[in-house]
Amino acid sequence: MRDLNGCSGSLSDELLEWYDRHARDLPWRVSPAARKVGERPDPYRVWLSEVMLQQTTVAAVRDYFLRFTTRWPSVADLAAAADADVMAEWAGLGYYARARNLLKCARVVADDLGGQFPDNHDALLKLPGIGPYTAAAIASIAFDEPVAVLDGNVERVMARLHDIHDPLPGAKPLLRDHAAALTPDERPGDYAQAVMDLGATICTPRKPACGICPWQTPCAARKAGTAPDLPKKMPKKPKPTRHGIVYLARSETGTWLLERRPDKGLLGGTLGWPGTDWTDAPTPNPPFTADWQELDGEVRHTFTHFHLVLRVQSARLQAGFNPAPNQELVPEEAFRATDLPTVMRKAYELYANR
Ligand code: SF4
C-alpha cells in the first residue's frame, strides 16, 4: 500500500528500488548489492564518516576519511593514536570539537566496550560526541535499526514530499514524524541512505530534478509548484565581526613558534599561532618583546557564529627562546602548514606570500 495518495506500492519500496540502481559510491558505504549478499558495514567506518560529515560536505570529507582509515584502520588503532597526530590529520576539516570527541569516543569504545560499538540508538547516544542524529545514522546504517535519520537533506525531502510550509527549525519535530512514519522495518539502513542520496542528488536545494525523481507522483510540493521554496527557514541573525592579531615568529634556522589552544572553545586543542583574544577591539599580546612588523593585508575567516578579521605580525625568533608550557618550537623540517586549522593556514599564507 502506498503511504500517500492511495496508489499501490509503498514509498519506501519505490525509493529502495531507485537506490538499488543509483546509490552513490562512497568510501564508507557498503553498496545495496553487497548488503543483499550479507556484507555488513563496519560500525567504525560508519561512525567516523558520520562525525566527519557533520557540517561538512561529502566532497570535503572523502580524502580525510581515506587518510584516517589508512592510518588508523580500526577503532583500537585510533584510540591508541597521539592526540596531536589526530588533531593534525583533522586540520582543515573545521569544528575541532569533533576531533577531540572522536578520540574520547574511540577510547571509550576501545577501553570499556572491548572495541565494539553498541548496536542500538539509545546506547550509542551515551558515547562522547554522539548526538541524536549521529546515533540514529549509525544505528540505522550499521545495525539496521528502524530509526528515523534526519539530516538537512532528509528535512528538505520531507518538507517537499508533504508540502510543509512551517519554517525550520520549528518544523523539525513534524518532519521527524514524517521521516519516522516512512522508515521501513525491512532494509532501514539502505532506506536512510536512499533518502540522503535523493536529497543530495535529485531533491537538491535550488533546482530539484522532479522529472527523474522516484517520488514525483506522490510529491505534494511538486504538484503545488512550491518545491524550490521549501523548506522554509526562519531568517538568520546577521553574524557579528570580531578582530584579532596573530604573531608569526621564525628563527634564522627556520624554527617556528606555535601555541596549542586550550581544549575547550573554538579550535580547542589545535596548534596555531600565538595571538590575542578575538573581540571587537583586541589588546595586543605578543609572545615576546620584539620589533613586530605588521604584514600588508589581513586574514578573513567565517565561523558558524561570527566573521573574523585577523591582522598578522611577524618578528625574528631569537635563539635560546624558552617556550611557555602551551607553546612548541617546531623546526622547519617538521612544520607543515597543512596541519594548521584553516584560519591559521591563511595567516601563514599571508606571511609566505608577503
Ligand atoms: Fe523533491 Fe521534486 Fe522529488 Fe518532490 S518530486 S521529492 S520536490 S525532487
Strand-helix topology:
Elements: H1 11-22, H2 32-36, H3 43-53, H4 58-71, H5 75-79, H6 83-90, H7 97-112, H8 121-124, H9 132-143, H10 152-161, H11 172-182, H12 188-201, H13 220-224, E1 241-250, E2 256-260, E3 271-272, E4 293-294, E5 299-302, E6 307-316, E7 327-330, H14 342-352
Parallel strand pairs: 1-6
Antiparallel strand pairs: 2-3, 2-7, 4-6, 5-6
Helix pairs in contact: 1-12, 3-4, 3-9, 9-12, 10-11, 10-12
The chain binds iron/sulfur cluster (SF4).
Can you give keywords for this protein?
7 strands, alpha+beta, 354 residues, 14 helices, 10% strand, 39% helix, Nucleoside Triphosphate Pyrophosphohydrolase, single chain, 3-stranded antiparallel sheet, binds iron/sulfur cluster, 2 domains, Endonuclease III, domain 1
What does this protein look like?
The structure is a single chain. The protein is an alpha+beta fold and 354 residues long. The protein has two domains: 8-229, Hypothetical protein, domain 2 (Endonuclease III, domain 1); 241-352, Nucleoside Triphosphate Pyrophosphohydrolase, CATH 3.90.79. The chain has helices at 11-22, 32-36, 43-53, 58-71, 75-79, 83-90, 97-112, 121-124, 132-143, 152-161, 172-182, 188-201, 220-224, 342-352, and strands spanning 241-250, 256-260, 271-272, 293-294, 299-302, 307-316, 327-330. Strands 1, 4, 5 and 6 form a four-stranded mixed sheet that branches. It has a three-stranded antiparallel sheet with strand order 3-2-7. The protein binds iron/sulfur cluster.
